[in-house]
Amino acid sequence: MAIESDVLVIGGGLAGLTSALSAARSGADVRLVSYKQSTLRNASGLVDILGYTPNGEGPLTDPYDAIPDLPSEHPYKTVGLETVRESMELFDEVTPQYRGSHTDTNALLPTHGGTIKPTARYPAGASAGVASDSRDVLLVGLESMTDFNAEHAAAHLDAAGVPFDVRGETIRFPGELRADAKVTRYAKMLDTNSEVTVRGRKKPVREAIAELVNTEIENESRVGFPAVLGDDHTAEIRQELGEKIGADVFEVPMGPPSLPGLRLEDRLFEALDEAGGMFETGNPVEDFEAEDGHIEHVLVEKNGAMVPYSADEFVLATGGLVGKGINSDREGVFEPIFDCHIDHSEDRYDWFDTEAFGDHPFASFGVTTDDRLRPLDGSGDLEFENLRAAGSVLGGYDFAAEKSGSGVSIATGYEAGNHAATEAQ
Amino acid sequence: MSDAESNIDPADGTDFQPTAPNTGEEFEPVDVFPDSDDFDLRPGSDSCYKCSTCDTNCPVAEVDDEFPGPKFQGPEQWRLKQADGEHTIDDSVMDCSNCLRCDSACPSGVPLGQMHNTARGEYVSEELNTFSIEYIRNRILANYRTSAWLASKFPRTSSFMMNFGPVRWMMDKVLKVPKERDFPEFATETFQEWWAKQGGATGSRERAREVRERRGEPVDADKKVAYFHGCYSNYNTPEVAKALVNVYEYFGYEVVVPEQKCSGTPMFANGMLADARRHAEVNVSSMSDLVDQGYDAVASCTSCSLALRQEYPELFDIDGIEEVSDNTFESVEYLRIHEDLKGEIEAAEVDGELAAEFGYHAPCHARNQGLERQAVELFGDLEGAEMEDVGDSCSGISGTYGWKSEKYEKSMKIAEDMFEHMEEGTESEVGMTECPTCAMQMEHGTGYDIRHPLELLEAALIEEN
């Protein structure tokens, strides 16, 4: 027998989770399978829709305004403007800890490198940091966290012309942490408000940090920390620090491994559970069996045994080049599970630009689909009638340059999940 | 290997010309390291792109300021050791609890479990003094099977003595086994003794044939499993092993209980690879004979199934080891694949002491096999029982880890979230997990009674009939 469901989603990142969520909320019996952990844990936790046009214009004020003018192969054009809006409503509904839904306009958030990123949604923890606010900012770095140099980030923000004064100071995180302590270690100490010893006296870590910041702060009314302020009790930690420092406290989103990304992942799995979706992680989908263009089941490899998982509809949300939903070797670029067609030059020296920040063709590699997100083969016919693709496995857009990664995953995930649920019922 | 390497001018190493292709044909990879009979950890190490996902999953690094985390213990340490002959394995490898969270998490498939086990084995054989208390204590803990075998000869006396205050005080002082822990009770009748009374394999074949006839299945259907019960369900919780037999026979399976020793899990975790190999040889030999005859292997302990499926082929080169690995399953998983378990459960109900709300904890080793939601999903449809997932934290005990005085506090700190979720999340004071030592920890921290999914399955499908 096979493990059964109406809809089987392959992939546990933002696209896979959104697609499983939307299918489950449409009443389908959904199962999500994911091999290992996804790149969502490396994401900043900022949820962008569109920051720049494909030819580099921006930062865009209103991402929705720019969608109608995107090239026809762009996933946003496939699903349409209305779907992008609907999908964001779903996202807003399941993530009460996110902000930005009050407006169509992009917010501008400072990054840990000191740049400004246009983004549609951001964690509540980052909200006091928005660059459109004119209140002065103190950025606080931690000596052992070399990923965030507060003075450097402040200088960059200043050079970018932010409408406030910004200063960076570095403190030593209280306690006996090792130099390369993990982000989860800082978060755990803050979550549990562990006791630390400062000059021979024991005190709770939140208090100890506030005391250190109070010796550095001048008249700034906002204080930004690297995003390590807890995992389970972030709001409480920010509030307590804020009260003790006498300023609004915010987190600056960081690079991988990223607690805001991890918190978003946790929340979406929780939402999927609440919606009645099933999920399991740890084993890869390695193969499938199909008849007349209809996938009967996929085969999940469990330590050498191939176990069939059957469904009426399948969603491919395995990620792009980093997430390994798309792979390449010296011969070509391929999609490893179903071998869906991926348009690319035969000469692999055409896959990239010689400039590091040039216009790299590989950045847009991915599957092409019909208007219902079903992958097409090289001659434009359906690969399978019951397979849909969502997220970075799709081609036709460069999420890194456009700042559209999250939005495309949410919109196409939502659409693929909805279609799959409708077809399955 | 990238072709960029062959473009590098050895004189200055900077002559990389991506626009001047050096196409595949003439490319010959260079063998950097000499041939060796050891498992090659290089491809795994090369796959690491330092995203640190492993580090964010490590329950020890979250509470321990000394522990450098899995990225160092695995790929980085391996690479350091290739650089020169001076680096020895860092002693922090003994602070790894072998929960394998890193191994389950890695998006690049780096075999962190294999790397940790190999490093720990090397550390213990080359750095640890075999006359030290640590070595002696670890060896005793790792060879639990031997102690349990001895104790099972005098189960009542052993259960008493092992929890007798002065004895425990001595053990704490001399062997560094924490006195806070309660030793598990030894069963007055082991599973093997019970099994012999049931007529062993012959009895099971007869019963299974009757069931198949009653279920309208072919009497000679190929439904046979070899049960790897492990030490704990033999000596301490035979009710779990009996439940397995009853449930499998209910579905018409013939059960055999082959000759077996410890799976090796506690030995891997203590770096006692020679001990583990000795036991593995026995297990693989008897299991592979049965696999050849068409049996599949099932285990009720998720660490045992993990050892047979994954750790064996990663660490040992024994005849038949791949066949055993490919054909081993966790016991409920196997039924899910081959029977309409969902349908059976939807039609059933439980009453009596197992009609409860269970606080379910997924053992890390079950998670590694993709089974973290199996019990919650399955029993969600069972009338009379409710399942509450108590979160994704590690239980902290990790087999023998929490049985060491210097690790006890750490072990309890790791478990804080789980204890909290158990107490807040459930009304009835009863928990569920597949792993015997997670069960010990759950009981230790909350006083809850902890049951195995097979026991609930047995109550749902059989006892009411």
What does this 3D model show about the protein?
The complex is a heterodimer of chains A (425) and B (465). By secondary structure, chain A is of the alpha/beta class. Chain A has two domains: 3-7 and 20-100 and 261-424, FAD/NAD(P)-binding domain (3-Layer(bba) Sandwich), CATH 3.50.50.60; 112-252, Rossmann fold. Chain A has eleven helices and 21 strands. Chain A has helices at 14-25, 63-66, 75-79, 81-94, 150-159, 183-192, 205-214, 234-245, 259-274, 399-402, 405-424, and strands at residues 3-4, 7-10, 30-34, 98-99, 107-110, 116-119, 122-123, 137-142, 166-171, 195-198, 201-204, 222-226, 248-252, 278-281, 285-291, 294-302, 305-310, 313-316, 327-328, 333-334, 387-389. In chain A, the strands form seven sheets. In chain A, strands 14-3-2-18-21 form a five-stranded parallel beta sheet, covered by helices on one side. The two termini of chain A are 21 Å apart. Chain B is an alpha/beta fold and 465 residues long. Chain B folds into three domains: 49-127, Fumarate Reductase Iron-sulfur Protein, Chain B, domain 2 (Orthogonal Bundle); 191-262 and 269-338, no CATH class; 345-463, Rossmann fold. Chain B is built from 24 helices and eight strands. Chain B has helices spanning 42-47, 53-57, 70-83, 101-105, 112-126, 133-142, 144-151, 155-162, 165-175, 191-197, 200-214, 232-235, 238-250, 265-269, 273-292, 302-315, 321-326, 331-338, 341-347, 364-368, 374-379, 405-425, 436-446, 453-463; strands at residues 224-228, 254-256, 296-299, 328-330, 357-360, 386-389, 430-432, 449-451. Chain B has a four-stranded parallel beta sheet, with helices on both faces. Chain B has a four-stranded parallel beta sheet with strand order 6-5-7-8. In chain B, strand 7, helix 23 (436-446) and strand 8 (449-451) form a beta-alpha-beta unit. In chain B, helix 13 (238-250) crosses helix 24 (453-463). Chain B is globular and about 70 Å long. At the A-B interface, strand 1, helix 6 and strand 14 of A face helix 2, helix 17 and helix 18 of B.
